[in-house]
């Protein structure tokens, strides 16, 4: 367009005048476009990283551009939206990241990015057809609230997910999982008897504690920033139902080759995909609805526990989100167990929080659980707790061992009723350190009492406040087993003001520990899924920076 128009000297004066006008007009247009472009780069610079990362030389991570040069005003964002900036601040959740992945930002150097930016600053884009195309897309991109939040979901063969659900009768040796995989993994809908008002009318389900991966996958299907273009993605989700898969083989004498068949097949496939090569799978993540030990079998002996999924070389490069991590494994990230409430609107959450704020709590504390059979009765914390609870009128015991009451422990109405009638909920370790009950109690506004740091404080760093005393009571396990502490006395001595402050904090946490109804969108509230996604994207950003930094310092 520009090239075809050259000034000719033999034009009449008026024509010359028009040509001048047109020239001025074109210059100002060019100026406007360059302003727009600059603005565009500021707004999408996060996407810019992934773009360039992919399209540049994949192998050379020294050149990963990191446009932290720009400053994007966070406060201009709408509230409730996941905030994501380039100010070396991964996300507002960064402070909750485990210390091992919080970066030393002062070391990040970004020469490549700045060089490129300057070049673009100086020379305005030429007005050729390609650039007009880019400009045409600018306005929509400027408004892109997904920048830095895109997730690409691998399209796995159905044997890694959907087929497991079809075989739900044999997923668990001890019970039939089929009812629980219904309703997108939420389980059967809970309908209260007409007289009861323990729950809200809508969106309560008898959710199984091992359904996390199904629920997570179904929420992800409606995630607002999905992309089919993996080069735009900040993280790559692998929707493998790792926990349901291993769950089939944990009991019944299955040999290790049977147990490891799917995990091995999966990682082999993943490593062959083009998405893998970009970061050797280090931007990939899996969600497993079981504890870390179920995926970390060290030996190849048949009587050893679980699969070796997380010890396969490919999986070591990926991250896994699960309900309980093995202590200090840096690619395991614990996220809340699923509980019973799966709201589809902000309003329902606020309504529930209000209800929990105002409910009467006649019991000082309660315990819902069973002793561990075979455990040494004089050293078992659960036996001691049950004994103390039975002998204290201020404690409500929901004995899940007792066959008379057994069904109550799986009844969301009954469990929630006990917890919402109690100030404190006792959460001792059981088969492992964490319990689903912790999340049921928070949901009911009941302050959890922990006996081991691995039950919460060292686990849910993305979802729980850093300061454990702000939302829970800690009693060292041995104080109870060695009978140095009477739980009733310890809890009744907590000052009223502290109880109120903890209750307030617990109720504030409710949205962060629930998984919304999969096809719904919450407006201002971040649920457990949102917090987890923010966490994993932050973690992957940290890895990207690490790769850059390591390479910079070595070169
Ligand atoms: C960001 O924007 C808000 C509102 O638009 C303004 O009050 C604030 O001063 C800005 N902050 C910076 C650092 O520019
Ligand atoms: C990062 O965020 C934290 C809190 O969100 C803030 O205190 C800190 O100043 C921020 N750092 C930068 C470099 O913006
Ligand atoms: C960053 O690199 C260091 C040294 O190689 C390593 O110890 C650390 O775990 C890495 N952090 C992440 C987030 O990969
Ligand atoms: C971060 O790096 C700077 C410069 O290398 C160093 O002086 C500082 O102590 C480091 N901070 C932390 C928290 O490691
Ligand atoms: C601009 O948008 C059109 C369709 O909206 C698309 O075909 C084209 O690839 C986009 N251009 C760029 C550079 O993204
Ligand atoms: C493992 O068990 C499967 C099915 O029971 C069997 O086919 C296979 O031969 C066994 N493998 C080994 C190494 O024992
Ligand atoms: C895992 O990542 C490292 C780099 O961090 C890479 O050298 C290695 O090849 C990767 N492993 C696999 C199986 O892709
Ligand atoms: C139970 O623990 C006590 C105290 O540690 C010990 O004396 C006793 O021998 C143990 N009993 C069994 C059956 O292990
Ligand atoms: C943790 O919270 C408790 C109770 O709110 C408070 O007394 C204490 O000072 C806090 N500790 C820290 C390190 O902030
Ligand atoms: C619980 O402890 C308080 C304070 O020590 C005491 O007054 C009360 O009698 C105890 N209640 C029961 C049922 O043991
Ligand atoms: C860093 O980049 C150099 C090329 O600049 C490359 O040869 C080297 O393999 C890279 N190192 C790492 C650890 O990625």
UniProtKB/TrEMBL annotation:
Which UniProt keywords are given for this protein, alphabetically ordered? Glycosyltransferase, Golgi apparatus, Membrane, Signal-anchor, Transferase, Transmembrane, Transmembrane helix
What membrane topology does this protein have? Single-pass type II membrane protein
Q: Where, per UniProt, does this protein localize?
A: Golgi apparatus membrane
User: Origin, by domain of life?
Assistant: Eukaryota
Q: Name the predominant localization.
A: Golgi
Q: Which GO terms describe its molecular function?
A: glycosyltransferase activity
Q: Into which family does the record put it? A: Belongs to the glycosyltransferase 47 family.
Official protein name in the record: Exostosin GT47 domain-containing protein
Native source organism of the sequence = Sphenostylis stenocarpa
Q: What is the phylogenetic placement of the source species in the record?
A: Eukaryota, Viridiplantae, Streptophyta, Embryophyta, Tracheophyta
């Amino acid at each position: 367009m520009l090239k075809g128009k050259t000034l000719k000297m033999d034009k009449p004066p008026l024509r010359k005048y028009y040509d001048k006008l047109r020239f001025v007009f074109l210059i100002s247009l060019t100026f406007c476009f360059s302003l727009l472009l600059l603005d565009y780069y500021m707004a999408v610079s996060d996407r810019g990283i992934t773009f360039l990362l992919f399209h540049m030389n994949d192998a050379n991570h020294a050149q990963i551009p990191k446009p932290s040069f720009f400053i994007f005003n966070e406060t201009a964002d709408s509230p409730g939206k996941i905030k994501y900036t380039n100010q070396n601040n991964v996300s507002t959740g960064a402070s909750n990241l485990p210390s091992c992945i919080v970066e030393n930002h002062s070391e990040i150097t970004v020469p490549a990015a700045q060089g490129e930016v300057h070049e673009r600053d100086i020379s305005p884009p030429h007005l050729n057809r390609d650039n007009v195309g880019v400009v045409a897309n600018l306005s929509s991109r400027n408004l892109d609230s997904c920048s830095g939040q895109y997730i690409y979901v691998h399209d796995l063969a159905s044997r890694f997910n959907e087929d497991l659900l079809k075989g739900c009768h044999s997923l668990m040796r001890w019970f039939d999982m089929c009812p629980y995989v219904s309703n997108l993994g939420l389980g059967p809908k809970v309908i209260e008897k007409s007289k009861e008002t323990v729950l809200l009318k809508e969106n309560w389900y008898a959710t199984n504690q091992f359904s996390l991966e199904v629920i997570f996958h179904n929420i992800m299907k409606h995630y607002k920033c999905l992309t089919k273009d993996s080069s735009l993605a900040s993280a790559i989700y692998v929707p493998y139902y790792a926990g349901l898969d291993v769950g089939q083989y944990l009991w019944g004498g299955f040999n290790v080759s049977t147990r490891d068949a799917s995990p091995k097949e999966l990682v082999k496939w993943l490593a062959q995909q083009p998405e893998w090569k970009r970061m050797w799978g280090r931007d990939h993540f899996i969600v497993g609805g079981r504890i870390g030990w179920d995926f970390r079998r060290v030996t190849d002996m048949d009587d050893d526990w679980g699969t070796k999924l997380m010890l396969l070389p490919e999986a070591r490069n990926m991250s896994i989100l699960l309900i309980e991590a093995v202590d200090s494994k840096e690619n395991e990230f614990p996220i809340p167990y699923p509980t019973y409430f799966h709201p589809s609107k902000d309003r329902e959450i606020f309504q529930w929080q209000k209800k929990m704020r105002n409910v009467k709590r006649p019991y000082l504390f309660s315990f819902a659980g069973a002793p561990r059979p075979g455990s040494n009765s004089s050293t078992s914390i659960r036996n001691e707790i049950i004994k103390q609870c039975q002998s204290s009128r201020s404690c409500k015991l929901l004995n899940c061992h007792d066959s008379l009451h057994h069904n109550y422990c799986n009844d969301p109405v009954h469990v929630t009723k006990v917890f919402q009638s109690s100030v404190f909920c006792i959460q001792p370790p059981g088969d492992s350190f964490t319990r689903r009950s912790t999340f049921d109690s928070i949901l009911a506004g009941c302050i959890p009492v922990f006996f081991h740091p691995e039950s919460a404080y060292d686990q849910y760093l993305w979802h729980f406040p850093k300061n454990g005393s702000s939302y829970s009571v800690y009693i060292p396990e041995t104080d109870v087993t060695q009978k140095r502490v009477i739980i009733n006395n310890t809890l009744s001595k907590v000052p009223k003001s502290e109880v109120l402050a903890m209750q307030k904090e617990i109720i504030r946490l409710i949205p962060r520990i629930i998984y919304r109804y999969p096809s719904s969108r919450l407006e201002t509230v971040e649920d457990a899924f949102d917090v987890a996604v923010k966490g994993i994207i932050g973690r992957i950003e940290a890895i990207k920076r690490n790769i850059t930094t390591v390479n910079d310092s070595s070169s």
